[in-house]
C-alpha cells in the first residue's frame, strides 16, 4: 500500500467513525459543509506532518470533489449494513414460510409476516421481561447487526473510536441499525421473494432515522427502561469488542502462518 492509498484509507475510516456517532444519514448539502471538512483538514495535517507534499492544484481546488467522494463512500457503507441485515432478517424473524404453505403462496406469506413486524415497530422488541414490561429495542437481530457491522465486520468502525465503542454502543449507531432493519422489512413487505429492497439513503430514510433516535432518547429518559437500555448498550459493546479482538488475533495468526510458510517452505 503506497502513502496516498494509506492516507485515503485513513480518511475514509475517520469519515465512517465520526459519522457513526454523529449522524450517519446526513444529506449531501449538509454533509459537504459540515464535519467532512474537518476530516479532510485533519488528514491534510497528518499528510504534511509525514513529510509529504501536496501537488499544485489539488488543495483546496479539489476539496469539494474530495468531500463528495467521501459522501458517496459513506452511502456505500450504509448499503453494506443493509446487506448484513438482509442476510439475517429472514431466519431471525422467522420469515421463512412453514412447510404447510404452498410454494406459490410463499411470497404473500412473507409479505404479510413482514407487515405484522412493522406494525407499531414490533420488530424492535424482544418480548417482555420478568416484570412483564416490554423489552424495547433489544431484538437479537439488532444486536447481531450492530456487532457484525461496527465491531467485527470489514469496516470495524469501533477500532477508530475505542474510547467510545469499547464502553458502549452509541445511541446513534443503534438508531441506524433499527432504521436499516425497518428498510429491509419494508422490502420484504412489498416483495416477499426478497429480491429487491428500497434504497437505503438519506433521501428515503433520514426522517425515519431521526424518529428512531428520538424514540431511543425517550427510552433513555424513562426511569425503568432507561437504565436497562444503558446496560444493553454496554453489554453489546463488550461482546462486540471481545469479538473484534478475537478476530484480530486470528487474522494475526493466519498472517504469521503464511509468513512462516513463505520463508520456510
Automatic annotation (TrEMBL):
<dbReference type="InterPro" id="IPR045341">
    <property type="entry name" value="DUF6532"/>
</dbReference>
<protein>
    <recommendedName>
        <fullName>DUF6532 domain-containing protein</fullName>
    </recommendedName>
</protein>
<feature type="domain" description="DUF6532">
    <location>
        <begin position="54"/>
        <end position="217"/>
    </location>
</feature>
<dbReference type="Pfam" id="PF20149">
    <property type="entry name" value="DUF6532"/>
</dbReference>
